[in-house]
Specification:
Elements (H helix, E strand, L loop, with lengths): L2 E6 L6 H7 L1 E3 L6 H8 L6 E6 L6 E14 L23 E16 H5 L18 E4 L1 H13 L1
Parallel strand pairs: 1-3
Antiparallel strand pairs: 1-6, 2-5, 3-4, 4-5
The chain binds a DNA duplex through loops.
Length: 152
Amino acid sequence: MPYWLMKSEPESYSIDHLKRDKVTPWSGVRNYQARNHMRAMSVGDRVLFYHSSVVPPGVAGLAEVVALAHPDATQFEKKGDYYDAKATKAKPIWECVDVAYRRKFKRLIPLDELRVVKALRKMELLRRGSRLSVQPVTREEFDAILEIAAKG
DNA sequence: GCCAACGTTGGC
DNA sequence: GCCAACGTTGGC
């Protein structure tokens, strides 16, 4: 089963928002590589929910893919932040999966703490200048982070 | 198809 | 607010 990490700025959408909503379309991604990762997702894939652009940044909890990639409705919303004039209903450009809330960690696992974990040496998130908002994660990396979360 | 300019992300 | 990294755009 593949594993992923998805970033969100908690000010706009946090793990608590997802807890409230239960399921949400992961809309607003406007990067082809990130979109392609979502296209590659399957129902049941597990997702690390990452809080970015906050102090400290880190992994806040877990989500799960509950719907395959489908056209992102926000690309058609003329007045919205995510409108894309090149997209049409017949030929959408942007897609998103739906993710469901699974759990919030007892504490946020900060990025700094991940940096020193051996099993995470090669993790995409820790690469200098890693900006991709949807990233694949290996099983080993996923398990290592769950282990840190379990230790409390 | 190259590449400079520009915009965005996101840690610090 | 700064700035490194890197994706996108557009002139040529």
